[in-house]
Write a structure and sequence with these properties.
The protein is of the alpha/beta class. Helix content is 42%, strand content 16%. The protein folds into 2 domains: 85 residues, Leucine Dehydrogenase, chain A, domain 1 (Rossmann fold); 124 residues, NAD(P)-binding Rossmann-like Domain (Rossmann fold). The chain has 10 helices and 11 strands. A 6-stranded parallel beta sheet has the order 1-11-8-7-5-6. It has a 3-stranded parallel beta sheet with strand order 3-2-4, with helices on both faces. A hairpin with a 5-residue loop joins strand 9 and strand 10. Helix 1 runs parallel beside helix 10. The model has no long low-confidence stretch (mean pLDDT 97). The structure holds NADP nicotinamide-adenine-dinucleotide phosphate. NADP nicotinamide-adenine-dinucleotide phosphate (NAP) binds next to helix 10.
């Protein structure tokens, strides 16, 4: 039976530290604040937003929401971004994506001030992750994978790590953050030949491929640590991951659950980034 690497203990430890840093700022007269910018009202955006607001309230971070209708012109969104950039009382910005199809997402991302890019969406933040300069912020989900591995003291230096997926939101930045820990990282994509063999080679397997239960027993071996980033909702509203949990759990040494794993930690990373942005902008 595998050890279940639950997100809650990671979240508890992170929130305690973030709340203390937030209180220290408040005592100095700075209340860290997050701007939530949402166009339209997609179901999954709304539930993530509720979680973010709840987490912010818990640690003392203020939230200001900027809501636009689904058919808002791009100029209206760019004006909101400009207001967030200008406002010294706002330290971070969460911009929900994907944006509606009539908007140029790259242009909107580029308009955001990198110092307030707590979700790691600007090229400046990604450059910071890739060049390891400490500038900007890593995308929150990629950072959440690292937080879980660190919390459970999974050895990374010299470990063989396979990351399945290469998106700029999860796979690629996660691979870079793991490389920073001196892991030997292999990144897989949809053209990877013999994916099961590449996965079995890994000591640590991070799966962010967006395919429900795609990683089964043929990709796994005893002794592995598995981080499942995938989130899928079935017709009954049940959540599951990219890893076939029932097949994996009897085989591997440890695995993150879905729900209750990476997704739980992602919000805490975002809130910590807001506090860190406020510390940097002070
Ligand atoms: P994405 O943009 O669709 O990227 C998926 C990646 O997986 C791509 O690089 C793709 O390769 C690769 N891939 C697809 N099929 C593959 C295959 N058969 N073999 C190897 N690689 C394959 O997805 P994403 O945004 O990175 O998200 C990944 C998953 O994480 C999704 O389930 C998403 O819902 C979840 N997610 C969770 C959180 C959280 O907080 N827990 C946050 C964001 C996303 P190509 O590049 O070749 O197409």
């Amino acid at each position: 039976m595998a050890i279940i690497l639950k997100g809650t203990p990671v979240v508890t430890a992170m929130n305690r530290e973030t709340a203390a840093r937030c209180q220290a700022l408040i005592q100095q007269g700075v209340r860290p604040a997050l701007a939530v910018v949402r166009v339209g009202a997609r179901e999954d955006d709304l539930s993530y937003e509720t979680g973010v607001i709840r987490r912010c309230e818990k640690v003392g971070v203020a939230v200001r929401r900027f809501l636009l209708p689904e058919d808002a012109p791009q100029a209206a969104l760019e004006e909101v971004i400009a207001r967030v950039n200008r406002d010294p009382a706002l330290h971070g910005c969460l911009l929900f994506r994907p944006l509606p199809r009539h908007m140029d997402e790259a242009a909107v991302r580029a308009a955001l001030c990198p110092a307030k890019d707590v979700d790691g969406v600007t090229d400046a933040s990604l450059a910071g992750v890739f060049a390891n300069t400490g500038a900007g912020f890593a995308p929150c989900t990629a950072q959440a994978c690292l937080e879980i591995l660190r919390h459970y003291q999974v050895p990374l230096s010299g470990a063989r790590v396979t990351v399945v997926g290469r998106s700029l939101v999860v796979g690629k930045p996660a691979a870079m953050l793991l490389d920073r820990e001196n892991a030997t990282v292999t990144m897989c994509n949809s053209r990877t030949k013999n994916l099961p063999a590449v996965c079995r080679e890994a000591d640590v397997l991070v799966v962010a491929m967006g395919r429900r239960a795609a990683i089964g027993a043929s990709c796994l071996r005893p002794g592995q640590i598995v981080v499942d980033v995938g989130i899928h909702v079935d017709a009954e509203g049940r959540l599951s991951g990219d890893v076939d949990f029932a097949a994996a759990e009897p085989v591997v040494e440890a695995i993150t659950p879905v729900p209750g794993g990476v997704g739980t930690v992602t919000t805490s990373v975002l809130v910590r980034h807001v506090v860190e942005a406020a510390e940097r902008l002070r």
